[in-house]
Each structure stands twice: as structure tokens, then as C-alpha cells.
Specification:
With 165 residues, the protein is of the alpha/beta class. Helices cover 53% and strands 13% of the residues. The chain contains 7 helices and 4 strands. It has a 4-stranded mixed sheet with strand order 3-2-1-4. A hairpin with a 4-residue loop joins strand 2 (84-90) and strand 3 (95-100). It is globular and about 50 Å long. The chain starts with a helix and ends with a strand.
């Protein structure tokens, strides 16, 4: 399995893997994040990665481990209300992972995040990257509005544009 995974990460170019995320779709995602964050205190960060760094594949870093690493590297954990949410799409391994800061995670729990991940993966399997991503953002937004509604002061602490790695 390790050799097969390594070869997939080596042989498939990022530009090929990232092609479903057109400029138009990236713009729609950014607009959805902006609209979402206006209604709650959560901070959403979407990261799409084609290939993992080879050292990560060699160490058998799982998509979950990579998501946690990016959660820290990108400062998603460092929001005022402990309300950062990283949505990580690992395209080669065909996995979605969501890492939520402790404030939000305590309210929603891992089963909620797992359900959103599997919903996205199902849409992606059928090639529906746009609706899969936008529906997941809406599901997360609804939950955040319920638990972390926007107050008069609602700073935008993280970039809203999806990050392509």
C-alpha cells in the first residue's frame, strides 16, 4: 500500500488533480465563505491539496494527520472564539477531513464532522465537486449559526479564499 500510494502521489501532477476547482468554482466558494461568516462567529478555511509532500507520504502521514498539521500551520486554531474550522480536501487519497477548534468541536462533536466529510466524498466520487463543497459549507454554516451566532462585532480573522496546495 505504501508503494502504491507513493507512486500515485509521484505520478499524478497537481494541475491534473486540481482541475475540478476552476477559478469560477474557487470564486463561488470564497463568496460562500464570506456570506457564511457574516452570520456566525466561526472562521472557515478550505484547503485543497493534490499531492502530499513526498516526505509526508513516505512517513505514512494520513490525510487526518495532514489536516491537523495544516490546522496549526495556517493558524486556524488561533481565533478569538476558538471557532476555527479547517476543511481539508486531499484529492489523491480521495479524503475529506475537517478539523474544528475546541470551542466548536465541543458543541458539534466528531460524528457531525464525519458526516459532512462523507457527504462531500460521496459528491466528489460522482464528480460533483461544486455542489459537494457548497452543500457542505451550507451544512456547516447552519450549525455555526445555531451555536455561534454573529454578534455586533464579528471580525474576519482568516482568509476566505480557498487555498490550493
Amino acid at each position: 500500500m505504501r508503494l502504491t500510494r507513493l507512486l500515485r502521489h509521484l505520478l499524478l501532477p497537481d494541475w491534473w488533480l486540481l482541475r475540478p476547482f476552476s477559478r469560477r468554482l474557487l470564486q463561488r466558494i470564497e463568496e460562500a465563505v464570506v456570506a457564511s461568516e457574516a452570520t456566525h462567529l466561526g472562521e472557515l478555511r478550505l484547503v485543497v491539496e493534490g499531492n502530499l509532500p513526498l516526505a509526508s507520504v513516505w512517513r505514512d502521514q494520513t490525510p487526518r494527520m495532514r489536516a491537523i498539521e495544516l490546522f496549526a500551520q495556517l493558524g486556524v486554531w488561533d481565533t478569538e472564539c476558538n471557532s476555527g474550522v479547517l476543511i481539508y480536501l486531499q484529492l489523491i487519497d480521495r479524503r475529506v477531513e475537517i478539523v474544528a477548534d475546541r470551542g466548536i468541536h465541543a458543541c458539534l462533536g466528531q460524528p457531525f464532522w464525519d458526516a459532512v466529510c462523507r457527504q462531500m466524498e460521496g459528491a466528489f466520487q460522482s464528480g460533483d465537486f461544486e455542489n459537494g463543497t457548497l452543500r457542505a459549507l451550507e451544512t456547516i454554516s447552519t450549525a455555526l449559526r445555531d451555536h455561534f451566532p454573529a454578534l455586533s462585532a464579528n471580525p474576519d480573522e482568516l482568509p476566505n479564499a480557498p487555498l490550493l496546495l
